[in-house]
Hints:
Layout: H1 4-8, H2 22-52, H3 61-87, H4 92-97, H5 112-121, H6 123-154, H7 158-170, H8 175-188, H9 194-217, H10 222-230, H11 235-246, H12 248-264, H13 267-272, H14 279-284, H15 295-316, H16 318-329
Helix pairs in contact: 3-15, 5-15, 6-7, 6-9, 6-12, 7-9, 9-12, 9-16, 10-11, 12-15, 12-16
Amino acid sequence: MVDLNKTTRQWTTTPVDNPSNSDAWQQFLSGATAERLRKEKKEAMDKQKDSHAKVKTPMTGSDKVKFVILICISAMFIIPILLVLMNSFKSNVSVSNEPFSFPNAESFVGIDNYTNGIAKIDFFPAFFTSVFVTVFSVAFIVLCTSMCAWFITRVKTWYTKLMYLLFAFSMIVPFQMVMYPMSFVANQLKLDNMVGIVVIYLGFGAGLSVFMFAGFIKSVPLEIEEAAMIDGCGSIRTFFMIDFPILMPSAITVAILNAMWIWNDYLLPTLILNDQRTLPMAIQYLRGGYGSIDMAAMMAMLVLAIIPIIVFYFSCQKYIIKGVVAGAVKG
């Protein structure tokens, strides 16, 4: 297709005085025709945009009630975060005596709580430990469970159905039932380290992840994979080149859910890790003896701890509803 904008720069729409000059006259006609086509195309695009524009309807009484309810629910989640952020800039005494007041000239301490908290808990080693455990755990969960779900869905045998039931059953078993035998087995198998806990997280995160991936794979047409195999693709190549790009919304949703769980987890690393400390474990070291707690420094460290996961969540949040609906409803 001819680029009209580019073409009009070469033509002219200025009338000529001598129509007998055939070259100038033809140039004028070409420029006028191109300008007319450009205007017609612009008008058609404007009409198309207007036809697809959503018609705004006034809010009814029930809509206003729903809006107020949603605002209240949002405030219930946002206010605690704002309180933590606000108290992170106040002195320890002010946090204990006036936790709901804004920082003033007497209570405001700047970033002293942040610097003191970073020094007390060795923030950066704990931070990088949490990053290592979270990144590799989520990567292995997404990779292994997507392949497992694809195999369970495409291979119709009795043992694949049994595997699917076992993965679904694992979601209803509470962690408290298995934490003591799990910690004993992990110690016997030398999994009580940063690499071993990645394997344990893979086991605990496999149930929900396989369930979500399997529901989405059922909606993928089998003819696409058959066409790829006819072209010479094997099973592994078919999965990574055909299925996995289609599974991307569910993969991002699984990654978000597992990342939020693993990053904020305190109990499992406490039971498994011996020498290393994750960020939630390190923050708990601000609790001193005889019930003393450095609340101001703890508030500052909580702010630093939630920033990475909030950034990751907001960067990928648009895929959550799409992936959850596709994985849990389709098929």
